[in-house]
Description:
two-stranded antiparallel ribbon; 3 domains; 61% helix; 2 strands; rod-shaped; mainly alpha; single chain
Amino acid sequence: MVFHENYSNLLTQLPPSLIKAGWIRLTTQKKNPLSESEASSINPIIEAFLKHEVDRYQRNKKPQYNPTIEVKTKFHCIVIPVSNPEKSGLEEETKSRISDSSSNSLLYNTNIAPLYSEEEVNARIKEATDNLHQEFIKSTEETLKTIKQQKDIECNQIKIDMNNRAKNLFEITLKKYIRDGTIFNLIRALEEKDGRLYPDISRFKGL
């Protein structure tokens, strides 16, 4: 389990544990594993792998130092990353700028003013409700007007039909009374009662 000596400059930059882990990974990987002889030879794949491991190891060795500045505003305690903490007056300048803009900046003030005040919202709701009420009244009046017109038409037609039926019934009854002589008996009775003669009705006998 030894890499080729040509890669000694890379191997010296890695701890033994990583060298061992790299050897195992190359020789036991599921896809295209290397034999021990191949892993011990000069191979572009080996060189690329070791360079990658060295780069990753060096990056992990560097301390992850992210200097920050803590700034307290009226509403929050803000932590700001600083790329160059040694810059003269950076903290004071940053605090000053945040203090000046905190009342107007949405970043540092979560108490964002609503788009409309409560009074404006209530006024808009009342206006919308009133408009809806007026539209409902107008629609109801139009519907009732239409219903009334339909009922008036129906009532007028009923009156016309009743008048026509009454007229037809009267004519039929009158003709019947004339045919059977009832009308003449009624006229004579009226003449006797009133003491006067009524116009000649003999012309009705042909009905």
